Model the fold of this input.
Amino acid sequence: MGMFEFCLALEFCLAAPKALSEWQNTAPFDLRPHARHDAPSQSERLLMQGYDKRRFKARTANGHMISHNVYTKGQGPVVVIIQELPGIGQSTFALADRFEAEGFTVVLPHLFGRLGKTSQNANLLRVMCMRREFRLFEKGKTSPIVDWLRALCQDLKSTHSVNGVATIGMCLTGNFAISLMVDDAVLAAVSSQPSLPIGRHEELHMSGDDITTIRDSLEAKGPMQAYRFEGDVFCRAEKFARLDETFNQDRERIRLTTLPGDGHAVLTHDFVDEADHPTTTAFQDVLSYFKSSLRQEPA
Done:
């Protein structure tokens, strides 16, 4: 990593300390991608009660084998929630619970960090070390972890005997939800506060060929959804302007929604479970979109 990338990472860590204060330093500073994943603590076992756990392996296009734990619960149409940078914490589990209560099967790939713990800065350092999976600063390219996520979605389509799944990417993984729409196993996707490449707000984390394929896929499947807060310092207005310019020139392929306020995590940390709150309205819109897209008879 060069000095430019280091400075961008430092800027990312310091950009909004008040907004993210509850996400800082709440996990041990252990830089392994997910410490003790084969020997969970008692608190982690209690936290994951009701979830089925398995190890999923897949090879990326460049030949690297990637392996991560995957947690699943619920019965019904399949929604894959891709964790955000601070980790799979209580607000992510709350999002999963809301989907399960609405009759969905929820799938949580565990990509990095400690289950139930959140730490933005420590996880940023973790992911920066996972160069075979993530390309945090690169414009015009897609991170290799998207290949693993595509393979997971294909596997879920087969094992759950459905026509396809829905995905949600958030923050660090927000862009991945857009890229996943190229796969025939993904029928719907939500990109919440997409933030890559770090520090390059007018750039996209996907290649020109990716963009062409994604446009074609959205043409066939219908528009996906994307969300951000108006005052978000990580996912700024320039990002949505670039997405709009790239995908919506002649018709709407990504439905871009900007919520009032200075928050960041629309569906998790900054979600407010109150009637008529903008985040609750956003969640209801996502529910309707997923139910409409996934209501086909099982494959």
Q: What stands out?
A: The domain at 3-34+52-293 is CATH 3.40.50.1820 (Rossmann fold). The mean pLDDT is 88. The two ends are 45 Å apart (CA to CA).
